[in-house]
Specification:
mainly beta, 1 helix, four-stranded antiparallel β-sheet
Length: about 150
């Protein structure tokens, strides 16, 4: 009976370490972007001119997180509360839930407080209202942000 108690404690410890080693954001800001015919980009606030979202974030320094590439999954919730799913969006597991993602990418983490930007082009069109972006990495929620479009 002693052995299984140790195993359980070990498992709990492993889970805690995994959670502690997961990347977290220091803040997420979202900028709607319009792409002009010339290819030039401009920040916008209106839903009807926005073509993509630029999600900017920094990662909190974390000495026990693995340096190197980390997958980042992004879920984007539209103003009516629906997850935007792209054709190539698949499933992933975070916070013990299996979920669909809108977009997946990878970032290189080197524990230096670097800022990252993820561009997401909307396959459809944006509508007025608030969009929420939730980022996940290493099996946990990493951070979230939202933006209201006019």
């Amino acid at each position: 009976a002693k052995a299984s108690e140790y195993e359980k404690q070990n498992e709990e410890l492993n889970t805690k370490v995994k959670a502690a080693a997961a990347l977290k954001t220091a803040g997420v800001s979202i900028t709607p972007v319009r792409v002009r015919n010339s290819g030039k980009e401009a920040d916008v606030t209106r839903a009807n001119t926005a073509k993509k979202m630029r999600v900017n974030f920094t990662v909190v320094n974390n000495s026990i997180a693995d340096k190197g590439m980390h997958d980042v999954y992004m879920r984007i919730i539209d103003p009516s509360g629906n997850l935007i799913v792209s054709d190539n969006g698949g499933m992933f597991v975070a916070d013990d839930d299996e979920m669909q993602y809108t977009y997946k990418t990878a970032i290189e983490f080197s524990n230096d407080g670097k800022a990252y930007a993820i561009d997401w082009t909307n396959p459809g069109s944006f509508s007025k209202g608030t969009y929420t972006v939730v980022l996940y990495a290493d099996g946990y929620t990493m951070g979230r942000g939202s933006i209201a479009l006019k």
